[in-house]
Structure formats: C-alpha cells, structure tokens
Amino acid sequence: MLPIDLEILKYIFFEKHMYAFKLRPYLNTNQYHELYKKLSIQEHNEDLLKMPIQAAPFTIFDLETTGLLPELGHEIISIGAIRIQGTSHVSYKRFHQYVRPIRPVHQRTLNLTGMTRKDLQGGHTFLEAYDDFMEFSKDTILVAYPAAFDMKFLQTLLKRWKLPIDTPPSIDAQKLVKKMYPNHKYQLDSMIASFGITQLERHHALNDAIMTAELFQHILNDIDSYGIKTVEDAIGWIQS
Length: 240
Prior knowledge:
This protein is 47% helix and 13% strand. The protein has helices at residues 4-23, 30-41, 107-113, 117-121, 126-136, 147-160, 173-180, 188-194, 205-223, 231-239, and strands at residues 57-65, 76-85, 94-98, 141-144, 170-172. The chain has a five-stranded mixed beta sheet with strand order 3-2-1-4-5. α7 crosses α9 (205-223). The longest helix is centred in the N-terminal third of the chain and has 20 residues, at 4-23.
C-alpha cells in the first residue's frame, strides 16, 4: 500500500481522469437517466422523524469498500441491509448485492471480505445497486455503524457518478453507543460481544447489517431511559 500522500498524487494526476473516462459509457444509458430523474424528484417522508423511535421503520445497512477514502476513488463493492420495525423482531426482508467496481480490486480486499473476482464481475453496476437499495429502504430511516462513514461514502459515489446527492434521514448507531454506553468499547465487535449477539462472519455486508440490527434493537430497548422518544429526538441528541 502506498503512503497516503503518494496515493493522493496518484489519484489526482492519473486515476481520477481514468475513472472519469471509464464512467462515460454508463452516463449515456437509459438506466443512468432514469436514476438521475428519480433522485431529482425524490422527496423523503419527513413524518418518519416524528415517529416513536421504538416503533419506527429502519433499514440497517453496511457497505464493503475497496478502501476508506471515497475521495481517492475507493469504491463500494457490496451492500447489505435488513429492515426492522422498531423493537420488534429482526425482519426476514434482507438485501445483499455485489457491486461491480470500475477499478481493479486489490487481493488484500478480497481476502478481507471473502469475495472473489467472479463475485464482483457478476455484480451489479453502482447505478443498479443504488437504485435497488433506494427501493428496498424506501420510507425507512437509514442506520449504519458508523453512518458518518457509510452515508459519506454513498454520497461521494453519487457525486462521482454525476448524480443528485441523496440525503435520506439517517441515524449513526455508533454515536448512540458512545452516548449511551460510555464505559464500553464502541467498536462493533466489542459491542456484539457485550450484548451476547451471535457472531457471524465479519466484513460481509449482510452479516454486519444483521449484527448491527440486533445491536440497534438493544439500543432501542434502552433509549427510553435517556428521554429519547422520537427519531428526531435521537438525531438531535447525537448532534448535540
């Protein structure tokens, strides 16, 4: 792996232009124009923010990526999600897609995620995957661990694909953990162990979403004691 300063220079002077060149064919497709129109007119349901947090619909999601810096051309290679309804049982409605990247993926990323090059070659384009994810998560609050990373990654990819930025309502579960359990280690693995959640294979987007969903339901069971009643209360508390 290159030092970060060299990786920045490599991206600015070479890879950024190559990436833009490789994107051009996709930007002239009907699929691109349909997604552009959908994002342009999309209105998120603001009533969700007023709902009791223990009864609201949530989509818990996770991304697997080729790196941590979408500004340097790192890409999404898998999206996993699960829908829950407040503190009720984890839904069987699940979402998992491989996303075919524009640039080659390093072998260390494949080793970490357990994916194969065949998985990615047969994956959806980012346009297809994001469109499907939008449909799956429609009329829910997005939750990720941490959402600050996952939401930024999605929005940076939309910008790179010259699409309107999507800003659905979201909650950062990691920030809630820091507020509610200050004496715990806040890494996902530590919280999974603390709450006795069944450990699934990590760095698999759907598995991580399932474990985060179970953790989030523990959070919802405890959050009332902090005076948090609505989704809007939780978002405001995180930001305070």
